[in-house]
Amino acid sequence: MVELTWVIPALPLLGFLLLLAFGRRLGDPLAGWLATATVGGSFAATVVVFLGLRGADGGDAHRYTQTLFTWLPAGGFSVDVGFLVDPLSITMCLFVTGTAALIHLYSIGYMHGDEGFSRFFVYMNLFVFSMLVLVLGDNLLLTFLGWEGVGACSYFLIAFWHTKEANASAGKKAFVTNRIGDWGYLVAILLTFFALGSITYTDIFAGAGGLATTTATAIAVLLVIGAIGKSAQLPLYVWLPDAMAGPTPVSALIHAATMVTAGVYLLTRMNPVIAQASPWVSTTIAVVGAATALFAATVAVAQHDIKRVLAYSTVSQLGYMFLAVGSGAYVAAIFHMVTHAFFKALLFLGSGSVIHGMGGEQDMRRMGGLRALMPVTAATFIVGWLAIAGVPPFSGFWSKDEVLLFAWEKHPLLWAVGLVTALLTAFYMGRLVFLTFFGEPRWRRAGTHPGGEAEQSAAEVADDGGGATSTATAVTAVAAEQEVHPHESPWTMTVPLVVLAGLSLLGGVINLSFLSRLQVLEHWLEPVVEAGEHHLDSSSGVKLGLAVVATVASLVGIGLASVLYLRRSAADRPAEPDILLEGWHYDQAVSAFAGGPGRRFFDATTWFDRHIVDGAVNGVAALIRGLGGVARGLQSGYVRSYALGVAAGAVVLVAVFVLRGVAL
Amino acid sequence: MLVSSGLVSSGLVSFVLGQVGRASSDVPLLTAAVVLPAVGAIATALVSRRRPESARMVATLFSVATGVVTVAVLVAFETGEADFQLVEKYTWIRDLDVAWHLGVDGISLFLVVMTGVLFPIAMFGGAPHHDAKSFYAWLLLLEAGCIGVFLALDLFLFFVMFEIVLVPMYFLISGWGYANRRYAAMKFFLYTMLGSAFMLVGLVATAVLHARGSGGDLTFNVLTIANDQGSIAPMTARWLFLSFAIAFAVKVPLFPVHTWLPDAHTEAPTAGSVILAGVMLKLGTYGFLRYGLFLFPEASAWFAPAMVTLGVIGIIYGAVVATMQRDLKRLVAYSSIAHLGFIALGTFAITTQGLQGSVIQMVNHGLSTGGLFLLVGMIYERRHTREIAQLKGLQASAPIMAGVFTLVMLSSIGLPGLNGFVGEFLILLGSFLTRRWWAVVAATGVILAALYLLWAYQRVFHGEPDEDNAGFAEMSFREGMVMAPLVALIVFLGVYPKPVLDRIEPSVAALVAHVEDGSDFVEPSVAEAGTDAREETFAEAEAAEEGSGGEGGEDGEGGEGG
User: Fold this and answer.
1) Is residue B165 part of a domain?
2) Would you say B342 and B427 are in contact if contact means Cβ atoms under 8 Å apart?
3) Range of B428's domain?
4) Prediction pTM value
5) Shortest alpha-carbon distance between residue B183 and chain A (Å)
């Protein structure tokens, strides 16, 4: 059954090609149904392959390579288009195709009536194809193809509503920032080939143990640079919050559940090399992850835009996964990646449902009390909230607990940072839920006082974001005069919410840590990560204690949020310092540098080209022309001046001969 | 007149197609590829000036026929052969041993095919607004010259062809160009002529010194001279290399002799820009391969550090300057400098991968930059401006054109799955083996390329169209037909470049071996590089006195096998 592997990416590719050719003719909603069907089929194929792989016995049974054709043959270098099916890649495929199918279904409802309806699904199918190539590729270069492909699709979809400048800027920002990381990935490929003579994963696994420490360290560091770009870690995270300019299903699929986890996948895939590298590499990964997790959580506390809260939350949770990888907890990283895909996709889709129901409103200060009007959205959203907050027995509790346990063994300080982040996560998500679904309805105020106040609040929103981000917020604000009638979304949107809510609730069962027999994911992934996986040596008492502390932290966070936001007016902004609202001014600093010294350097180089390099050329030309002008004077055409010249020449010649004769 | 020329050229097409089916060795395919466009130029010139449509038809038929001949060359080409194939040799000047000597190998093959494909596309895509007859005649003469350069195996013949191309291009720019065309044409002509002057001296000196050194007769045969390396003293050969290198560096162009390019590209008519970027710049990079590495291997290896440095400077510098351009066409022109820097880097890395990358990148650049110039031309036709600031929101009214532009742009950025990546990656891979740090710096070019192209795209295609741009017309069917072959090739070469790479590889490997024979340069073998790394590990392991070291080493050898 594993022979069907090629079908997994082929179906979305087929969907992409069909929609490219006939999408406009199919239109709304048929194009969406076609796209959903291909991704659903891909999910079915994944399940079949998964069952085939599970059923296989023997030493190397859980690894299957399918080669389609040779892509780049060049001398001693050769790369195939081939797929590697092993526990890691098939686990990734399962949740990628699964969530993607649900999000496609949701998009049929969400994108209904948009003039770019079929174009949206063209990009979405291309994205799923690229993501599957990324995950299934059997060598670094094919993964890179998928890596760049998802980046391009992300660019298309962020800038999907391209007539708005802010969306276009956000798309460009995402692509260019990602490319900085891609540089690291690219050089890592070159170095791997140089060191091992192959970039196929099976060869890398076999050869990694023989790598010199310096070489392995260099490769690992370069890969980490690539992963930092893709997975939006410090210092390259700046593109992800802006990426929320895209339609909400895009945020759910690409910028939460799948693409941004590619960096974590890459590091997990290459764990034998990281294991061979100097220990400071994994420490760096853990520190970057912990710092990002805490940083982004603090920023999420103060955001007004519902999607920006979730965006910073995604950055923060990706930091958790980095922390796990750096602590040698590869299984926990993948575990958290899966549960995060469930609950974050759920939260984004839920926020999309809210935005849809509110007629495009994204500012939480103009929401409130929506639980009565949107019961399904509210109920599922609360499930997602409890999952991300880490309340037992929701899925997030199990995976977060694993990460924190490994962090504890790496260094208690890392654990402490993770714990504070967990508390903050529970707090800001609580704030989001209370502001959106509980309390007084605040959207009516815009209706009762048309004009002045609404305009003022729009201006406020514009001021809040600051710098480059302000426009993004302003354009999403609803026109002041528009009457808002919040309503529940159609079934195509609520069904995915319910399914994801179920998964967010129960997703933890794939790896229940209290019984070794129930750690299914860990046993399943073991052969892939055995080189790099850290083995726990804490006693069960310590484990239990840490779990209790983490649970208490979550509950404290939720409690704080309810105290601050459940009863009080949102306008008070009880815990939202401006510096957090503006993300510690980091984004502005980067923009200021790029627009200031960076731009001046580019301008200076251009000036140098125009005035020095080309100026020299024109200078030489002018010099020659000048000399030519002088010489032209001689060609006067007057016989008398030529005669004079001839006479003068004769005199000179005679003089020379005479002088010579005298000398002789 | 129209009917008869039409008959002649359609007859030629069927003749050529018929011949390919039979034993292709008896047909002088290469001579046909050079002569056919030249004949076409004369035929076009003979058409009455009052019938521009007839001139267009005649020219089109001849260029298509030439394209068919080049494809026939591709079909007749034996994959896996390193040597020159389909060789033709007819004595021209007996006393000097100058010959009409043509041959094709894996290095020139795809350049010839690309030339054959790109000319008809440029003709369709860049129709002139006046004096069609002369325009097409010049273009066909240009095509003959370009194909002649790629196929020549005789120094004298090569020089003649290399110089012939200047004349039509000069007239194309000065006759059909934009506002500042005379300045640009003159600059282009003088700049390249100056380079050629050095080459002429070097070329004659090479033949004479070879004759003297080898004790044989004077010959201009490239193969004879190249395979007789002992005849010219190494120090002399370095000077000779330099004289050729100046001409090629101007043509490529390499930093700092590049400033003719933005002016010439920007002021040339669309067809001229396409050919200039797509084909004529490759005369320089091809020259480096055939009359640099092949003719002067020792000198090439000696100058390699300087050449790769100039290439890397070009990559970064071209991209930085491109970013700040206000004119869309000028921006594309500067992007060429960056792309050609990659080709120079791959060439002088002197590894199989680097050279393969360079050769295929020459083709890729022709397709993607040619495509970009065609698209910029289409925008100009509608808006009569190329100022980025004047354009806005074109995607709103022309989504298909925006889509095609995006694809070609991503190819130029080097997105995997499209053709540009194949060349860039192989160049980086190959240069990493011999010039590691240069490759690491060159790889930053991937960031900059995304920066300048996406920024330009955003300003031109994104946003709310203003009054001037609201009525921007969508791509017409004819324009779509012009772009379709380019788009198809961009995708095909990105997904399945194997047929192309397989044909390039033997010749390129032979060239590397030739350089190794002629100099003390040694291409590092990848497996050995890996072994070094592993040996280092053994040393480390022994130092640490750990038992696991041996195991790791065995694993490492397993990795080498794959």
Assistant:
1) no
2) yes
3) 313-328+338-562
4) 0.89
5) 11
